[in-house]
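WP5 quarterly update. Target: Phosphate transporter. Source organism: Pseudooceanicola marinus. Length: 507 aa.
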Amino acid sequence: MKGPLKRLAGRRAGPNRPEWGTLDRDLDRLSLLEAGAMHQSRPLLMAGVALAFIVLAMLLAAGLTGQGPSSIAVVAAAALGAYMALNIGANDVANNMGPAVGAGALPMAGAIALAAVFESAGALIAGHDVIETVSRGILDPGVVSSVASFPLAMIAALLGAALWVNLATWLRAPVSTTQAVVGGMLGAGGAAAGLGAVQWQTLGLIAGGWVLSPLMGALTAAGILGFVRWRILYVPDKIAAARRWVPVLLGVMAAAFTAYLLQKAPPWFLSASLSQPVTVALGLAVGLVAWLVAIPVIGRQSRGLENRRSALKPLFRLPLICAAALLSFAHGANDVANAVAPLAALVEAQRAGGLEAVVPLPLWVTLIGAGGISMGLILFGPRLIRLVGREITRLNPPRAFCIALAAAVTVLLASSLGLPVSSTHVTIGGVFGVGFYREWVSRLNDRRADKAAREKAEGRTFPLEERRRRRLVRRSHFMTIIAAWLVTLPAAGLVSALAFTVLDLLG
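Structure tokens (predicted):
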């Protein structure tokens, strides 16, 4: 029984006054029935709010694009772009906030509010990036721009990608929305212009990045956690070690985020793009300042703490919250294009009468993407946030901080190398990396120490198998997520190709 229903049902267990007992019991039954009806109607209410947002996006597109056949296609694409943005908010944003919620650094409501603000800010402030139409060069613009059914292909691509992400969210599988959009573009564009329009070399590079993303995230997160255990958590004087090394980790995090955000800086902030050495130098400078500032702050926070591992958790909470906020900002700046890239391509094609290799995001298109991501997070995000933060493996603030730091470092490194990666794959890979690293350490300890003696020394009261089960990565979630990753691109492509075929026949 859910929370409000349980509380209402529990009232009847209290003492009853004779003169009001019958009335109280009747009122309790009515209140319980009303709470149950409200709980059952919540999904319908959330669907209604999402539908209202989609209708609002359609009205906005209709008001700004005028009338005509091409405007009808833009309005339809606006509806599907809003639908895709809702799905991104429901699925993708969980990767940024899940570790913070699972570690107890943020309550669910606080995480949703923080993510909504920073996702929207990232989309509106830094989501200016010129996006290569047809999802980063997957299709040859010279081929698809000459195809009369190109607007229909963009609508089908959005529809296929959004339907697949929606299904993955329902199955509680965090997937890459970038991968879904690329698959949708590939399927619909290929159905419209033929497989000759596909730029297979670019597709191979992107697919390679998707394979490497979770591995890089897992290895980096495991390596950082190993360092934290080696230099902070498992030393005789844990407080002194924390005062020395936690500021260093904060400096590394600040340097990584600064360098990455400078790469994404909007034109009004930087008149010209910075070279890689300059970006690295500025990131290191900010990291140095953050390290110096963090030294006295961590020193004050560590006063009076006991010299044990659990006492160090508060030192990682604020850095973890800052990391989650910055990850959300970077995600909003990057993934807003996943929701509205086809819509922007249609708007540009309508305005210029053709399609260029790159397409800017108009402000109203960005607003649809940013608003949809935030709305989807608020309405449907908690389910996957709980999965990522609590159900894959057990997290606490130090482990969650290692995941966030690993995600920042991995994405920055991949961007510097020109390797396209998925932030979803990196973060989830980090969660798995932390879980499997702890499992590996646990098995080493099992082989090195006498089980019964260790249980007595640590005060454990539950059996060894139960301890192991509590520490391991849940294999069911692992297999579900890996399977969803493998089938996302072909599934979205097939759905989009089918959608284009049906729409083309109907048209």
